[in-house]
Design brief:
about 90 residues, alpha+beta, four-stranded antiparallel sheet
């Protein structure tokens, strides 16, 4: 299970959190979507838990439509992290 943390803009009403959650939850491979929006601000943080074997971050972020925009803050994919750690150990040690 991987987790992506995304900064989202364009959230201007109370229904925006639900719209974002619904849009991303429909993507195959997305398991759970948590949306936190800042009070009296058009910005929020979205955490997406997904199966990295079925979907990539750019694929599910493409489902966010106008008026929303997103910037990936962090992408924690255990499979990719294990690969990177293995290469780091090979080349650094």
């Amino acid at each position: 299970m991987a987790r992506a943390t995304v900064f989202v803009g364009g959230m201007y009403c109370a229904k925006c959190s639900d719209a974002i959650r619904d849009s991303l939850s429909r993507v195959r491979g997305v398991v759970e979507v948590l949306v936190t929006n800042y009070v009296e601000s058009p910005y929020g943080i979205v955490q997406v838990f997904y199966d990295s074997r079925q979907v990539r971050t750019d694929e599910f972020l493409a489902h966010l439509r106008t008026p929303y925009w997103a910037t990936l803050i962090e992408d924690r994919d255990p499979k990719r992290e294990q690969t990177l750690q293995r290469y780091t150990e090979i080349y650094v040690c």
